[in-house]
Amino acid sequence: MARLAKNPAQRAYLKRMAVLMTAYIVILFTVVGYFNQAPRDGPLAIVAALLPAVPVIGVFWAIGRLLIEEQDEYLRMLLVRQIVIATGFALTIMTAWGFLESFDRVPHIPAFYGAVLWFAGLGVGGLVNRLTLGSWGQC
Amino acid sequence: MNNRLKVLRAQRDWSQSDLAARLEVSRQSVNAIETGKYDPSLPLAFRIAELFELTIEEIFDSPARHRSGAI
Lengths: 139, 71
Description:
The complex is a heterodimer. Chain A is mostly helical.
């Protein structure tokens, strides 16, 4: 869970997240407006459709940088635990959903919800850290 | 891993934050080590030992010796 940053790695992470989240909102609204104006096709439409993914991918990069730059070994371990739990959480739900969807038991959902699940999984990982070790973790 | 960190810290009248600052780690790290929830790496164990001017064995109980009943 994001809390007040206390070391340089955490401060850099929060700055990167603020920039990436701002970029995501601006890009998403711009791209939605672009596609709402008229039917779009061709390479430009592909590039425009990919643009909102860039800051989301940037968040994965920012979390990776935090893992590399964090000098406190205990906080780094908490983050690793969060990432492992988030990955297992997201992959488990996506795998189950994929099979349910294949057999027409549930509706189709866009693949980018995998990222949403992973971010939710970081929260689950933080909760597991809090319950088992007494500290939430860093993101 | 059992350790004497809390006792050694109390003898010097240091808070967890004081010790964390001296070791250049977070207060959460000190708390986790003191409560036995986290075992420090060898480099951090050496830093702790050097700060208190003791050997690692004088601060941390060997889990193997503890299991065998030697401690």
